[in-house]
Specification:
There is one protein chain. The protein contains no helices and 20 strands. The N and C termini lie far apart (46 Å). The strands form four sheets. An eight-stranded antiparallel beta sheet has the order 1-2-18-15-20-14-13-12, with no helix packed on it. Strands 3-4-10-5-8-11 form a six-stranded antiparallel beta sheet, with no helix packed on it. Helix content is 0%, strand content 51%. The protein has 244 residues and is an all-beta fold. It folds into two domains: 23-135, Jelly Rolls, CATH 2.60.120; 137-237, Jelly Rolls (Sandwich).
Length: 244
């Protein structure tokens, strides 16, 4: 129910906050028994596309001419690569390089965060291979020595990858140690908890299920609130010179 057109969602030139009350679902080409909530796309100003895929049992993603990262939010998803089948449960993920034939199918009703981005090769560096993992098995590292803020790096930190995807987990009251302003852009999906996000010169309450796009050089800062941990999935472009 709408209350006189009010929403926490916002769209600004260098950032956007999208909340569940404004989500619109539609299938993307090739999807079967699946709907997409597209959070970020080039028409917004982003250099990538990110969406939440909502699968019925047996639902599949369509093909894409880009690299693809899939992070399971709920349910079970099977990823088939070169005839080998891998089952990903909640917090499992897969990196699928551009041009790799694959199939992503839900075994039960499921949700997954999907990030798709053109791949920019680096001269002399081989393109990355397919990669699967489980966020819960990734060692946590404190951010800048703060044990109240843990980072889990989901993709190998080598030059083959032109994107990074991490989770960040905050103890109640933990904050980023600085206001960040940088050339990379972000796509951020709040997985648990909530707090206050500064984007540009504005401050927004955020909670689980919210999505944020942060453009290059958008001032950004987060502080966790509440009595439970806060955790989000965050994408950035990196490992490439700004001149291309």
């Amino acid at each position: 129910m709408h209350h006189f057109g009010e929403t926490r969602s916002r769209s600004e030139p260098d950032h956007a906050l999208l909340t569940a009350d404004t989500f619109v679902r539609a299938p993307l080409p090739g999807m079967q028994k699946c709907m997409a909530i597209v959070h970020a796309a080039p028409v917004l100003g982003a250099g990538f596309t990110q969406y939440t895929a909502e699968f019925e049992s047996g639902g599949v993603l369509g093909p894409v001419q880009a690299q693809r990262f899939v992070f399971v939010l709920d349910g079970e998803v099977r990823v088939e690569i070169a005839g080998e089948k891998h089952v990903l449960a909640k917090d499992g993920y897969s990196y699928l390089p551009v041009g790799l034939p694959h199939r992503v199918e839900a075994l039960v009703a499921s949700r997954a965060a999907v990030i798709e981005k053109p791949y920019f090769p680096l001269e002399g560096v081989p393109s990355p291979l397919a990669f699967l993992g489980d966020e819960r098995a990734v060692p946590a590292q404190p951010l800048m020595g703060d044990d109240g803020l843990e980072v889990r790096t989901l993709l190998p930190a080598d030059a083959a990858f032109d994107m990074a995807v991490n989770t960040m987990t905050y103890d109640p009251g933990a904050t980023l140690p600085m206001v960040e302003i940088h050339v990379m852009e972000h796509g951020m999906l709040m997985l648990e908890g909530g707090g206050i996000y500064r984007l540009g010169e504005k401050w927004y309450p955020v909670t689980a299920g919210d999505f944020i796009w942060m453009g290059p050089y958008c001032p950004q800062w987060f502080g966790a609130l509440g009595k439970t941990k806060s955790r989000y999935l965050i994408y950035k472009d990196w490992n490439r010179h700004p001149l291309g």
